[in-house]
Amino acid sequence: MFLLATLILAIASGTPIVKAGPLSRPPKFEWSSTKALIAFGDSYTYVQGTHGHQNFSFIGDQFDLAYDAKTLLSNKIVQNQTATAEGGPNWVQYLTDCGVHKGLTSPQRCKKQLWDFAFAGADISTEYTPLHHNFTVSLVDQINQFKQYGHPALQRNLPGFRQDKTLIALWIGINDINDSAKYSVDFPTFYKNLTDILFESVETLYGLGYRSFLFMNLPPLDRTPGNQAKTSPSPNATQVGWYNAALADHAAAFAEEHKEAQVMLFDAHARLTAMLDEPHNYGIVNTTNFCAGYDQPDISVEYEKYGCPTPLKRYFWFNSGHMTSHVHEVLAAEVERLLLQA
Ligand SMILES: *[C@@H]1O[C@H](CO)[C@@H](O)[C@H](O)[C@H]1NC(C)=O
Ligand SMILES: *[C@@H]1O[C@H](CO)[C@@H](O)[C@H](O)[C@H]1NC(C)=O
Ligand SMILES: *[C@@H]1O[C@H](CO)[C@@H](O)[C@H](O)[C@H]1NC(C)=O
Ligand SMILES: *[C@@H]1O[C@H](CO)[C@@H](O)[C@H](O)[C@H]1NC(C)=O
Ligand SMILES: *[C@@H]1O[C@H](CO)[C@@H](O)[C@H](O)[C@H]1NC(C)=O
Ligand SMILES: *[C@@H]1O[C@H](CO)[C@@H](O)[C@H](O)[C@H]1NC(C)=O
Ligand SMILES: *[C@@H]1O[C@H](CO)[C@@H](O)[C@H](O)[C@H]1NC(C)=O
């Protein structure tokens, strides 16, 4: 079953869009009874773990991929000004309400547990784009690592863990499209190739028994502060649209091939575009720039000292490439609305 955010509204209004399959009924996905969220991706999604690589991961890095169940299950999510790429909680933390509060949180203590294997700076694979650092774990390697260490640990050692009470969330492509924006390739084919590799990894997760998948598409990255200042943004809106079309095609094809999977694509592009176009509806006043002092320890109080007329939460952009924690909070609420309707 494949659900696109916009199509969900059709379900809500009573128009059937899901054909009853003759062979097997998809297990009903229920956000309210979902016990865990397992996340993969890049800096938009990563959380800091006490066993992680500081500023990059919850656990380990490319030179330190192996871990045992005890290490994973005793690992804690750190929340403070430098523990995410947003200066505060990100979308998966708000969505699960796990690791939102300052200090340390054991995922096991959360009503919805967040097991987050995203790595800041990740691209999909080294096949088409280079690693940002030699310790970066690409999406493909995040999922290989999960297959080898994370999944067995959760399945054997986490009380009550079940794949059918778990949602897999993937948000990736942000670094890929940026790193490759100036390549001389046929972009629609190139993006199809990238998403081919992405879905080979999704297939691995399916093989481990996971059936509920949430994909996030690319934000309007042609509207970062840097790109707004250029006459020719890079990536441009056409490229972002091509990537998102490749992702949507692939998600639909994956759902077609796996009738018992629940495949959800959240149109982050549409939601974030709406926020940029009508910022006042979301308490945002600044969509064009970011506050230069965003990473200063006293920024929450002394923003004016850094030439910023308003607090960070009134900005859309946190820095040159990341949205503020406030934007993540709004987005998470909209993702939750989609999940509750699925
Ligand atoms: C993590 O990033 C912060 C800035 O956000 C920096 O001050 C700190 O040195 C970094 N830590 C490491 C280990 O690189
Ligand atoms: C955030 O927590 C990490 C890990 O506990 C610590 O190293 C870092 O200094 C903290 N940063 C701030 C700004 O409190
Ligand atoms: C990783 O890169 C750093 C800095 O570029 C370098 O000092 C280090 O030797 C590299 N590590 C390995 C194992 O290649
Ligand atoms: C896409 O993948 C195909 C098959 O591997 C390859 O022949 C082609 O060169 C790739 N194209 C781009 C633009 O990456
Ligand atoms: C965006 O960039 C692509 C690749 O260079 C190009 O084909 C396309 O025409 C550009 N779109 C716009 C609106 O400039
Ligand atoms: C947006 O932020 C920039 C950088 O802090 C600032 O110079 C500008 O005045 C702000 N614009 C508005 C409308 O607040
Ligand atoms: C995108 O790439 C450019 C260089 O091409 C870099 O300056 C910028 O920081 C990158 N943006 C993000 C969000 O990584």
From TrEMBL:
CDD domains named among the record's database cross-references: fatty_acyltransferase_like
Q: Which GO terms describe its molecular function?
A: hydrolase activity, acting on ester bonds
Database matches in Pfam families: Lipase_GDSL
Task: Report if keyword S-adenosyl-L-methionine is assigned.
Answer: no
Q: Tell me the first and last residues of the signal peptide.
A: 1-20
Q: Which UniProt keywords apply?
A: Hydrolase, Signal
Name the SUPFAM superfamilies on file: SGNH hydrolase
Task: Extract the PANTHER family matched here.
Answer: A, PUTATIVE (AFU_ORTHOLOGUE AFUA_2G10760)-RELATED, GDSL LIPASE/ACYLHYDROLASE FAMILY PROTEIN (AFU_ORTHOLOGUE AFUA_4G14700)
Q: What is this protein called?
A: SGNH hydrolase-type esterase domain-containing protein
Say which species the protein is native to: Penicillium coprophilum
